[in-house]
Amino acid sequence: MTTVLTWRALGRATLARQLLLERAPLGVAEAVEHLVGMQGQAPHAPYLGLWSRLSTFDPEELSGLLRDRGVVRIALMRGTVHLVTARDARGLRPLTQPIYDRDLRTNTLHAAALAGLDFAALAAAGRGLVEAKPLSGPELGALLRERWPDRAAASLVHGVRGLLPLVQVPPRGLWGRSGQPVLTTLDSWTGAPLAAMDPAVAVTRYLGAFGPASVQDVQTWSGLTGLREVTHALPLARFQDEAGRDLFDLPDAPRPDPDTPAPVRFLADFDNLLFSYADRTRVIADEHRAHMVRHRLVRAFLVDGVVAGTWTIAKRRLTVEPFGRLTKRDRAAVEAEGARLLAFVAPGADPSGVAVGSAA
After folding, report:
1. Mean pLDDT for the chain?
2. Fewest CB within a 10 Å sphere: which of 4, 114, 221, 252?
3. Alpha helical stretches, state H, the chain
4. Boundaries of every domain in the chain
5. ∠199-203-208 over CA atoms, to 5°?
6. Is the pLDDT at 359 greater than 80, yes or no?
7. Is 42 helix (H, G, I), strand (E, B) or coil?
8. What's 24's DSSP letter?
């Protein structure tokens, strides 16, 4: 008989894999690799995500890895920018290439403008330009239009982004720094060739960081299709959720007691925890997810293992907006963790600069 994992048991297992049940004594590269990368559309999001997950975290360690090319910022799973180790990037970028091939044919903004273009020639031209000198999107577009003057610069750049494994080079992504994305190829930046990760390895890595999960969950995380046979062929433990869906997991992965206490945690912008499942109710209620999408809210916080509201920082003040009424104990925990986050993001800020609002 298949074991049923309750909603709460799934949530606790997820928090354990995501290093959110207990902060982990890991180095930055080790943590990033365990998590199979971190969502990185917002340049400083990985710093916030690691702060919430590691028992000791120095943002300069991550900045140093970016400078030394041990980690990179690159579009991977789901077509979104991730921060990953250089080693993972070399395996994940060719694995996820079908996402970008599909986008070149279907993108509503650029597919028509790219129709009929010689993609091999575009890729070769783009590679030559960004490997001669890392370029911003506008710089690259202006140079490409010298060869294809009848095509929109933005669409040409979009085509190169889909055809080539482009990384965003520092200072983009450094702690306390800002700047527009400047691009070159992954292989030229790291000095090593790309080799596609085995899909079975990708599924196993995903389960280690996000399991237990369904095939649909794996495909949602990756943006790939056709992973059912790969998943079913692996020697995995099998469960069901309360809705009767089949779940897979690594046999020896942690699945904590559902009653394990879960501390308050602040999630980074677009945290992968919220985007890596077909059914996200283990961590966020559907109505709360819809509220965040509708209001373009990107930062959430957890109470008792689930999303309980959103947060923002502006002018050295942290504002927390709960979705519902917090108990006195939970409110105090949110304020305490919020004060620690504020001290990390804005050293020297007034510790009392944490405002917890009433229910939204």
Report:
1. 96
2. 252
3. 7-17, 28-34, 45-51, 59-67, 86-95, 97-106, 111-114, 119-132, 137-145, 153-163, 186-190, 199-210, 215-222, 228-233, 286-294, 328-345
4. 7-190, 284-356
5. 145
6. no
7. coil
8. B
